[in-house]
Amino acid sequence: VRINAQLIDVETDHHMWAEIYDRQLTDVFAIQSDVAQQIAGALRATLTPEEVQRIERRPTENIEAYDYYLRGNAYLDQVAFAQGNYNQAIELYERALELDPQMAAAWSRISIVHSRTYWSYFDHTPERLTMARGAFELAFEIEPELPDAHVAAAYYYYYSSRDYQNGLAETAVALAAEPNNVDALEVQGWMYRRLGQWDRAVENLNRAAALDPRSTARLSTAGETLYYVGRYEEAERMFLRALAMNPADAQALRLRALIAASGSGDAATARALVDEAVATGQEGALSPVDDLQPWWLLRVVAGDDTGLLDRLSFSTFGGDSIDYYLAIGQLNVLNGDLAASRAAYASIAEILERRIAREPNDARYHTSLGVAYAGLGRSGEAIAEAQRAIELLPMERDAMWGRAHIDNLAWVYAMSGYHDEAIEQLEITLNLTGMVTPEWLRIDPAWDPLRDDPRFIALLER
Description:
Blueprint: E1 2-9, E2 14-22, H1 28-42, H2 49-56, H3 63-78, H4 83-99, H5 104-119, H6 126-142, H7 147-161, H8 164-177, H9 182-194, H10 198-211, H11 216-228, H12 232-245, H13 250-264, H14 267-279, H15 294-302, H16 321-335, H17 338-358, H18 363-375, H19 379-392, H20 401-415, H21 419-429, H22 438-443, H23 454-461
Antiparallel strand pairs: 1-2
């Protein structure tokens, strides 16, 4: 193998240093370590003993296990919050660990997948969290100083309980050892978003995307964050970069549709972008984007398309019956089929009442049940459930979903005929960072009950 290393001053295009290294490809880890140290020496860089140790660290002695590990990384890193990819990643990490049970890096990564699987509600069970914690604890037992184990612990604290204090402490340890650890930068950025520290979140996630420019998931995450803070042109560039690598990236196409809706109130462009995603054969093109309730976009996309209902199924929503029935309920309202809408809302209520009996403090369940009760005409219960979601997950604990729950309360009020109360909530939420903007409210048919209210008109103008 031949490695050609060059150092170039990009401002002047002056080639400051170059070297060619020819090596027999018998031990890829030895080559990496040798070349890294020779380059450091050529550049007169002084390596600390800890840095030398990290350079010389081998993730495994089994090259086949390392291959499975890298393949697992590819599934985990390319598509954010996709159940099929998570299942594939777990299978590949498990094969790596069968070959080398002492591979701490693989234990760290499989822990991250388990934590994300729990967070995404693909398997929202205590058993999944036990697997996540057990995996990163094993990584620490094998390599106590491994930065990736600290990253896995950070994901666990974040996803299991929104424990940002411990999560940020773990990322700080990882980044002190490896300042360019992309996973540490990313999960730290995600926690900053929840804390409402948007500038720090943008900085972290933009840097992660720059350090790992082939990851469409990181580009989409950075773009999504720029979208939340209203930096639409920058967000659009991120999504276009992701689509240049993967034209069938349904998530990037959907997020571009959200930019069209929130940024300029352009429903036609939003519909065209979602249709483009569907045309690529992406079954999940009409399913939720991370952290964004899907029916908001579906209502705008629906327009006069009465056939949209026929394109939805349980599989479209990854088997999530709550999101499926919420979409069906809303679209049937738009189509004027109130009986079908009530049937869908009744199904949601039945499912969620059982889930809340098991998990009474899950805000997502309460906010969705509020919508279902409003659709069934049970206004008092609907408002109570929507308010309960805000109590369980206030803005102070989660600036993203906390704001979404306020939006949801406004919508429940509007559905229930409480116009003044709905507008009061919108007065609050339009001053916060998020997806619901005056432009969005102008084109979303869910707000038609308020359309002729002088206070609502004045609010949008102001």
